Amino acid sequence: MSVSDLTPLSAPGGSTVRAVHDEFHGDLLEVSMGPHHPSTHGVFRMIVTLDGETIVKLKPVFGYLHRNHEKLGENTTYLASMPYTDRLDYLNSMTNNWAYAVAVEKLAGLAVPERAEYVRVILAELTRLLNHSCLAGFLMQDCGCSGTPLMYAFREREKILDLFESLSGSRMMCNYQRFGGCRVDPSADWLAGAQRLTDGYGAFLDEFEALLTGNEILMARTQGVGRLSSALAISAGVTGPALRATGVAHDLRKVDGYGVYPRFDFRVPLGDHGDTYDRYMIRILEMRESLKILSQALAGLPGGPIMDPKAKLRGFRPKAGEAYGRIEGPKGEIGFYLISDGSANPYRYRVRPPSFINLTILEDMCLGRTVADAVIILGSVDIVLGEVDR
Amino acid sequence: MIAVAPTSDRFLEVAPLQLRDWFIGLLPQSLRWITSGLITVVAILAVFGLLFAYLTLAERKILGRVQNRPGPNRTGWFGLLQPFADGVKALTKEDVVPRDADQVLHYLAPVVLVALSLLGFAVLPFGRHLVPVELDAAVLYFFAAGAATELAVFMAGWASRNKYSLLAAMRALAQLISYELPLLLSFVPVVMLAGTLSTTEIVTAQGGWTGGWIPHWYVLTPWGFAGFVIFMIAALAESNRSPFDLPEAESELIAGHLTEYSGFKYALFFMAEYFGMCALSGMAVTLFLGGWQAPCAWLEFIPSYAWFAGKLLVLLLGFMWIRATLPRLRMDQLTRLAWKFLVPLALINLGTAAFWSLTAGWTGPLQLVRWAVALALVVTPFVVMGRRLTAGVAPRTYRYAAS
Amino acid sequence: MLGTGLIKGLAVTAKNLVGSYHDPARYTTLEYPEVKPKLPEAYRNFPFLVTENATDPMGTLRCVACQICEKECPPQCIYIEKSKDKKPDAAGKPQIYPAVFAIDTSVCMSCQICVEVCPFDAIKMDQEYEIATTDRFGALLLNREQLAKPNSYYHQIHPTEAVEVDARLAEERRAAEEKAKAAAAAKSAPKSAAPAPKPPAAPSAEAPKPPPAA
């Protein structure tokens, strides 16, 4: 069986296509890409077996950034875990905070004031803009652009980070959500700033798309590369834009309708090919939908308190029980599973990390492709090693 | 054999040569020949060495400005001392050689690369009287010397005993074989119409103006424009520049053939890359952009070497602009672009040039027919083959979930 | 036609290249040591201890060494030892004070939880960010002398928040004094059902913090 007979999707995951030593075809080349490699997005490592430049086997190795996150969560109070969730997916601390807050609120039966729900939606959509812009920039960097799209994405991300900083005090490690609401009430100035950003972001997206979307080289590099079938995506538990790029309409904002999302008018873009280009385009289109949600949420933001007055900061002890809270993070379904035994610390604390679960299908997408493809397929999966290794 | 500076031209045109002749005149007869050659070599090394230094700075500045940041601006005024700081750093860095590397080849590769990439400058006519070596087959010599540089890249990749370097070496060879052909085919029409392989005569053939305003450069003819574009694409690939920087491919192969090089050897690779870029751009200027000829008759008072330098810098700026914009191609796409697109286009371009040459006598309304046919011969294959090349690759429209 | 996408892209980069010379939106770099970023009021990095008085910082620390922050700190970077004796605080009431109060800033992750849980408004977040040192261990472990900064400094870096905190503290102090007076009056009156005065500056833990204006 030669390598060219193998389509990436029918390849049995993890099996060697042919022996590393083969008298007739010559030897295969085993390259350890990472953990020190410019395109592994951190300390990720792929042990790839190459026939020429074609990948016949790919073994992901991770854990270099393991920080005992889940065990730490069981040994600290509920509140003390909140800043640690910032450091899971360090691009998207706001949505990590929210998912954790949702889980604890379910556990403790806390209500969230309407204003806080709106603010959470605004921050989550800003986070989505930030994450998708960065992803697109990094993906182009993997494609070999000399940093230009990445710098444009970072230019816009800076504006969002400035907003986060003036609201929460920190650019990336926001630690903003609390059980039963948000820590700080956004001022009128801040909301005006968010509105300005929302109004201006469309122009950036237009420019970014003019730079890249119609670019023949980019299309040739990404279309048909890293195909993922919807069946495999569903069975592997892939969520987020990677799943929607395969044509599966699964967006927790619509499916669960959590928070105040049912009140907003937005659409869920779907891809038909499940390839790298679809994953890139779905993110661009999602950003445009996020802008719609943002302007609706900013227009409809109600007054009132930002915290549930019954919520306790010190001495927080939810009654015994268990809860799973999930939201649609920018990278997919981010969820927290908690078991309480009535003490100040959770008995069990478990994260459902979208990066990690989306990464499991990497070999299936890469088999039969070249090294250059593997790099951009990894880029389009959108991982953050802080979340993969926890 | 010493070329003596002609005295019939304006002062600025012959000043460099007269300076050389004055200096040589001070020496005994036996030393004159060798000194004359050495002065030329030193002049080329000094000018292009400095150009290399400031091109690295210009590239970083332009890349910075394109990316909305200032670029290097701390070392000296506007960062003008940055290249020298980089040089000092490269010289003082430890030279790491892998234990299992082929010590001799690993050492030789950068040296050979720089030496070979300098050879091309010998036949470029930098000005009306500034030609280092007058060769009858100058163009052939130039491309033979240029093709050899890729072997040094392979040498570096092979000698490093590093898997990334090896992959890069293989890529470099595939790229060399693919792009040498369109590069050579693209200038054959120039040789056909100029009727010579000598670079000086090719430039002279492009002299003169229509009405004093429109120069007779080959790039301003349909076949010349097509040849120029093909030449520049192939030149990008030959000098391993983005979007064809596959051997180096930072995001895939770390640094490709440079992975195991450090310090000044690494700097030498860069020097060779820029020398190659300058030489190929200089050749493009010579073949298609009229060499040192001024664009209009009344601008002739500016010395010819200034025009050459100006055109060269514009092309180099184009290299940088492209680098700042485009993503990298994949290996198979790179070779497909060469074999299925550039080579056929260059071959068709030969026919176009032949037609152009045969219809040189057409005047009046026939002149329009000549232009229309030649343009059609250039544009139609481009569109048809471009469509075939990008078959299956197109912008997509997306559907939305029914909510 | 092949190449239109490439040319569009080249146009975008050319626009940015030219724009970087005349359009501030396309030239976003702050040249740091010369130009410092304007920090938003909410900006935080490492905690400091508030003292009432700049001239006698150790005598007027608001901290009463209740050790709540030590317990709540997620990375456990605070170390407190209670004093054996009591010293009068700013209001003149004898209080326990921290004999040792140390924060290991190499461990601190600037999460602000110590500030949120402090019932005495004694610990706040600083905005000093040029804190690189050459000594990895000693210089990053800050003791109470290095941590103590006067209330006027707090007013300087977080003006809105500081005014609110001051008003609240004044209100609480007044209420406590009134209560104490009432208690004294009740004590002088025979056997009334006056409740024991609660410790003075303890705002209800449930109440959310005042919003530091963005």
Main sheet: strands, sense, barrel of chain C? 3 strands, mixed
Number of helices of chain A: 15
Largest interface: A-B, 54 and 42 residues
Oligomer kind: heterotrimer
Instruction: Specify the helix fraction band of chain C.
Output: 25-40%
How far the N terminus sits from the C terminus of chain C, by CA atoms, comes to 50 Å
The secondary-structure element order of chain A is EEEHHHHHEEHHHHHEHEEEHHHH
Uncertain ranges of chain A: 1-16
Write the layout of secondary structure elements.
The complex is a heterotrimer of chains A (390), B (403) and C (214).
Chain A: E1 29-33, E2 45-51, E3 54-61, H1 69-75, H2 78-86, H3 93-108, H4 114-143, H5 148-168, E4 177-178, E5 181-182, H6 188-212, H7 216-222, H8 230-235, H9 241-244, H10 252-255, E6 269-270, H11 276-299, E7 321-329, E8 332-340, E9 346-352, H12 354-359, H13 362-366, H14 371-381, H15 385-389
Antiparallel strand pairs in A: 1-2, 2-3, 4-5, 7-8, 8-9
Helix pairs in contact in A: 2-3, 3-4, 4-5, 4-11, 4-14, 5-6, 6-11, 11-14
Chain B: H1 11-25, H2 29-66, H3 82-92, H4 103-119, H5 138-159, H6 163-194, H7 199-205, E1 209-210, E2 214-215, H8 222-238, H9 250-253, H10 263-288, H11 304-325, H12 331-358, H13 365-389, E3 399-400
Antiparallel strand pairs in B: 1-2
Chain C: H1 4-22, E1 47-51, H2 68-72, E2 78-88, E3 94-104, H3 113-117, E4 123-125, E5 141-142, H4 144-147, E6 148-150, H5 151-157, H6 159-188
